[in-house]
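re the bet — no i am not wrong, look at it urself. input seq straight from the record:
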Amino acid sequence: MKYRQSFDSPSGLASTAHASHSLINRNAWADDDDINRIHQKKTSFAWTSFFKCCFVGLLLAGIGLAIVLTFWLTSKTTATETLASTMGITSTSTTSTSTSTSTSTSTTSTSTSTTTTETTTTTAATASITSNTCTSGWTGVTILYHCTTCPTIYPNAYYSYTYVAIVNLTRISLVLREDVGCFAIDNVSVRSTAAPSVELISNNGFETGNLSSWTYCNPGGASVPGAGEVFNSLLCISLTLVPKSGSYFYCDGVVGYNDYLSQTFTTVIGQSYNVSFWLSNDAGNNNGTSAADILLSV
């Protein structure tokens, strides 16, 4: 009995050892599986956390980029609008928007315009004029320009007329009176429409410095200080009278009566002539008597 027990004991121990070994192996495999599963879970969790972090990072980066772009675009738009507002630029667009910068130069100038009066006379009009030693024998009088209590005309104003000749020798006369101020006349011109380049009035701009080719007449003995003369510049009352062109002009400020400055020129009956002149007048305060007639006669 004792022998069996002593004999059987190693087998039991062996079986027990084998069973224990198998159990240990199974436990070891189970532990390995648990470790693998834990490792996989950790790995999976790490990757998941990584992807979440990446996603959150990308999302935050996108939001930050959007904020930066919005701020940049807003700043650019504000700067553009401020620039346009500062420069006074107004733009209108339909399908597209463009910004342009332009520089304009504004020039301010002061100019004085002259008055041009044109009158066409087809037949000689008979006018009544005062008969005196200067006008004796004048007939067929045509008055081109006329004024009484004449206003200030400054600077020189241009007047032009068309006249049809009724004789072969025609007279032009400047009949003037200015008790307070002074008249200034320059560039008296008569030209045929058939030959517009030929001037028929001699010394028409008074560039000889005197009244050569003209006839001056003062029938009433009117006072003529500084009148009925040729000047290159004259301070009359408040204005400085000057030539329209050239160096001289005719000045008349005769007081009390009219005086006359005349010249004759050759004409062809029935032919048209352009008659023109430049006139200015310093009338002062217009308190004195004044009159002006530019006329043609035969």
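see?? Residues 1-89 form one domain. told u. also The first strand starts at residue 116 and ends at 120. so pay up
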